[in-house]
Amino acid sequence: MDRPRLVVTGIAAITPVGLDARTSWENLVNGVSGVDYITSFDASEYPVRIAAEVKGFDPTRYIPRKEVRRTIRAIHFAVALGRMVLEDAGLEITDANRERVAVVMNTGGGGISHIYDATLDLLNKGPRGVGPFVIPNVMPNAVSCQISICEGIKGPVVTGTAACASGNMAFVDAARILWLGEADVAIVGGVEAGINPVAIASLARAGALSTRNDDPKRASRPFDKHRDGFVFGEGGVAMVVETEEHARRRGARIYAELLGGAVTGDAFHITAPPPGGEGAARAMRLALERSRVRPEQVDLISAHATSTPLNDVAETQAIKSVFGDHAYNLSITATKSMVGHLLGGAGAVAAFAAVMAIHTGVIPPTINLEEPDPECDLDYTPNEAREREVRVAIANGFGFGGQNAVAVFGKYA
Predict the structure, then answer these.
(1) Can you tell me the distance from the alpha carbon of 34 to that of 286, in angstroms, rounded to the nearest whole number?
(2) Which of 100, 148, 269, 297 could staple 184 via S-S, CB 3.0–4.6 A?
(3) Which position among 76, 246, 304, 359 bears the catalytic label?
(4) Of the candidates 184, 173, 243, 285, which has an alpha carbon nearest to the alpha carbon of residue 412?
(5) CA–CA gap between residue 406 and residue 393 (Å, rounded)
(6) Of 225, 249, 273, which residue constitutes the final position of a domain?
């Protein structure tokens, strides 16, 4: 079937290592860790006292002060990303195009933090203490809808939640919308702001989080023998993806091409991957087939790589299953070693690393990889960035519930 080529023409990022795409990328390339002690609440009595928080973000730069008070941090991130990415793409929303622009901003937890705050209000102040904007803030689709409202975008407005695969799935869903001709342009990405006492306490009880409280910067260590769990992060990434025809017509700068992707299910366990990463392997294999890419054409994998004992081994096994001997020729990067795990925003950060590696020819490192796990024996770009031409890169995301999403990007020519 004939389908239009899709290109990335705008990038925006708000991460634990930068409040914009340029700063975030420079710090990722330089191996800067955004992990530190939690400041958003008093975590001194918690078993986990570290996270990768976004520091210094001022939402009033993007949203009127009154609206900032009425909305939550995840929405602040989303609206700011929407503003920044349109500016980077040089795209103005007008009466002529607003019905042909889509928003696909995904999230894992949405307003999870606001549920905690609203519950405290109810317990401490009674029913009259609960604000009228709780539900419009808690609903996961608020992140896409608020971008639509703030920018006057009237095309398809979609939010998908696939836990930690949400950010990757956004690109698969956006590609389908654009290929079907329902829009010419899409704002695509993932966002999360879920660092709160309940989430930290629950994930700590589950044994999912690193307890390296005495050494935060070295806590997230994907593929390392001594990894002990992931570090909770927050923030997000947005990109403008549009049809090649639309981009060329308006003379847009092109970072890379979105070639396609795939989503699969494990049907195995609510939190653990199946042996050998079967679902992840199937997602990568299908993503390549649907993108019309052969495994040997891939140069880079922007890995899911949570720094958990099970996930990193399963992803390594899945990569070997899909790529065979070529797995040892691949470069692999794990951005979570620096920004932690942004849950619904994680896949968008992985896509950011993939697109920027294609655009710049530089692969960011996997930091804290000091003693590789014997079962993790591929090239994870340990500790230092590397220059390499990247023709094709894939971004992996594997979520609780057994949801897997893979997006494929290529050099535009």
Answers:
(1) 34
(2) 100
(3) 304
(4) 243
(5) 10
(6) 249
- pLDDT tens for residues 260-298? 999 999 999 998 999 999 999 999 999 999 999 999 999
In a shared domain, residues 61 and 152: yes
Tens of pLDDT, residue by residue over 165-179, are 999 999 999 999 999
The one catalytic residue in 76, 114, 341, 359 is 341
225 and 274 co-located in one domain: no
Across-strand partners of 407? 261, 395
Whether 326 sits among the annotated catalytic residues: the reply is: no
Hey, what amino acid is at 37?
Y
304 catalytic per annotation: yes
Closest CA relative to residue 409, chosen from 107, 86, 5: 5
Please say if 145 is a catalytic residue: no
Tell me how far apart the terminal alpha carbons of the chain are, to the nearest angstrom. 21
